[in-house]
Amino acid sequence: QGREDGALGYPISDEQVTADGVGHFARFESGDYIYSIAPVGAWTVPWQVHGIWEAFDLENGPFGYPSGLPKYQPEPGIVWRQEFQRGSLAISPSGEAYFYHY
Hints:
Order of helices and strands: EEEEHEEEE
Distance between the termini: 34 Å
Largest sheet: 4 strands, antiparallel
Structural class: mainly beta
Helix content: under 10%
Number of helices: 1
Number of domains: 1
Strand content: 35-45%
Radius of gyration: 13 Å
Shape: globular
Strand order of the largest sheet: 1-2-3-4
């Protein structure tokens, strides 16, 4: 499935410029976002990850921009993992966040 029938649904915001003026993003019906920046590309950020990333000042914080697809990991201790330019963010089932800096 793709387009509006896909997991994201319809966009619910226009494409916007990020706070640093370099990238772009849009929000979708699912609550998830897509962020894009050259040369990193465009990547989905699930709402569960976005809330924590936002608490750390989004692209202006220690993570930088997303640089890979989010992974839902139904393994003990981790539910979501998202790669960023300067590390990865993992979220536990209880909502605790772990940042691995590169």
